[in-house]
Structure of EVG1 protein:
Amino acid sequence: AMMDELQMTHSQKRYLMDYVKRGDALPLQRFPPSSKQPVPASFTAACQPHKLPARPLLRPAKVCQAGDAYTREKFQPQPTRDLEKEKRRLQNILATGKDEVEDEVEQVLIQKKEEETAEPDQFEELINEIQERREFLAEMEALGQGRKYQGIVLTEISQKLREMEIIDKKRSEEMRKIMTKAFPVGNKSNL
């Protein structure tokens, strides 16, 4: 578009495009004279390098103040405390010598410890793990990676099934022992 604005001849355009194709910097001197048109004066001014000022230019104060640099953010108060709750808390501290919040925290901690100590059933965990591996294998097959993971996942599933069989045998033996203690009369083989 600039070449068209400067009304360059075809040979001048080709001369510049040769520089661009080679990746060289554009020439600073005038083009070779063409027989048809003289090179316009505006073109020579456009080809000369721009001179930078000796020191950076400073913006006037009015321009700076017109921007957002001098505007303050509007104050937005934070939510206030519940004074009634604070009064009840202080009354409780003065009456009992303890903070009810601390008691609640202790109760929550005790409940969490009880939940952690209650072991989830190993059999259920193994069932969940097998289900996760089946879902993973289905996802990989949907992505076209099923063959890559099929051997690994099926091996893991068979290991989990073996663990489930061991747990089942232990439980059945425990149940037999409990049943023989509870019902000592009769033939043990019938159980």
Observations:
- Helices lie at 2-5, 10-22, 41-47, 61-66, 83-96, 100-117, 122-142, 146-182.
- The CA atoms of residues 122 and 167 lie 8 Å apart.
- The first helix runs from residue 2 to 5.
